[in-house]
Amino acid sequence: MCGIAGLLDPSSGSDRLREIAAAMTASLQHRGPDDGDVWADPAGIALGQRRLSIIDLSPLGRQPMASHSGRYMLTYNGEIYNFQALRRELEAAGAQFRGHSDTEVMLAGIEAWGLEPCLARLQGMFALALWDHETRTLSLARDRVGIKPLYWYPVGTDGIAFASETRAFHLLPGFEKRLDAAAVSDYLRFNYIPTPRSIWQGLRKLPPGGLLIKRPGAAPEERRYWTLEQAIAAEPAISSETEATSRLHDLLRETVRDHMISDVPLGAFLSGGIDSSLVAALMQSQSARPVKTFTIGYGEAGYDESHAAEAVAKHLGCEHTTLTVTPAEALEVIPGLPAIYDEPFADASQIPTYLVARLTRRHVTVALSGDGGDEGFAGYNRHVMAPAWQNYATWPGPLRQGLAGALRLLNPAQWDGAASLLPASLRPPQFGEKLHKLAGTLQAESLEQYYRPLVEQWPEASLLLQQPGPVPGFPKRKSGEDLVAYLQRLDAETYLHDDVLTKVDRATMAVALEARVPLLDHRVLSFGLALPRSMKLRDGKGKWPLRHLLGRYVPPELFERPKSGFAVPIGAWLRGPLRDWAEDLLSETALNETGLLRAAPIRQAWQEHLSGRANRQYGLWGVLMLQAWQRQWLKP
Q1: Which of 27, 135, 219, 333 has the greatest count of CB atoms below 10 A from its CB?
Q2: In the chain, which segments carry CATH 3.60.20.10?
Q3: Which residues carry out catalysis?
Q4: How far apart are the C-alpha atoms of 293 and 272, rounded to whole Å?
């Protein structure tokens, strides 16, 4: 795990390129505090890496690394989990190795098979830059699911620069820090910036499964070497639930086992939910010693799952650590978020993600996470609700409008108050907010109208901006594609890598912790999306195969409870201990000072939230993070 940066510019000398690449790479030291190096060549190329040593801790694992023949030079960020099997195959074909790193195996594979055939064999997470001395070609590639980030930017008349994070480009001569208005508009809608845009004009994200090739004298050629849609289509048919769970169990055991390969201490995040509990259970079942697990909790009811995590850990025999977070500790973290997430980013669970990463790094260097189960096996409420929406979308419009209006008679806080009369075991987390979302789906006349309100924080984003951007589209549903499978794919191709994985990458890399996501092995993801709906949804709940498998390791009463996600009580905090901080950023003066935002609608939303008339926590959080980001990165 590490940070990479570099540039190709045939018009510049190698000493100058080495100097620039060294500065860009140094800005990523938090991603790799153990080691760092820069390589440059008179052909006009420089590659750099900051290393977090995980596999082969010796100098033989250092990067940038040359291939055995000397033809290729590679710098890469990530882990290849099947590198040992690939090494045995390459050795049988005559390849020789100096060390024991997965990097050397990748280079040997590229020499033996070529870049794209090698990528097709890799199981893991990666963002790489490969220089071919023979053809003077620079290739950039990103893993299939988008676990590791990679940005690129045109340089001069015939070059490009690349890096793991946008901050590195601030050290690139000629880089213009001009905001991309469309990216800002998209951000206000989703609280993240969708690929391929970045916050800066001209700076692009390479998409998951993306390959960019820069040949001499030619424009960069960008294409996909893998797509989720093709992978789903290639999945063999499943004949029964017994076959589905058997195959999935074997695949998950293998995937988790391979994700546990490490030359440094390893543990797992454990929230007590289905996904992280299953990962911890599969780890413990294949470990001779107690697995170290970590979670955080809060004092606020409806958000604290730490007791559930502790119960699961105790049952499995894990060595568990819990950190209880107070609003004061959250306040301490929040000012640093714009520096950690060097683009505007506003998934409020970034706070607990960073805190649990910081806690975990005190004990281990690698942690497995349960991220990906919702996308792969229909775990989000929008997946579970979709078949019902398909039914009530046929009801008369006035009836649906009337029901929606009835649900909105009480604001979310009032609904939460009513739900507090129920027994704790029957009390849904964030009940009022979910009822208001349900009201929005009742009014939907199309699939897009159903989906948008569930993922957009400011549907009226254009009203917030002095210069509105276009309304972004979504990947289209394919002919004959199951409704739930389509929504899963939609999430996997947008929200997963631009929100969930960005959140985890930046939070863990800020403390030099490697996070691994076995449920997002590309084989697991495509397997889950290809399953029939009946094998994923049951009794009003999603993720049936994962629930079934977890039940083999953990009693259902320890994990069967209303879904809350990795949420934080940000709405209450904004009305309480974070109010002064928020008021400073949302004052009319602050909102007007950059000329980007319109103060009136934001101030109105802020007053509605403070009064309790509406819960605008997530939309306001997006504006707050944008405001704080501008103060961090747009200083004169």
Answers
A1: 27
A2: 2-226
A3: 2
A4: 10
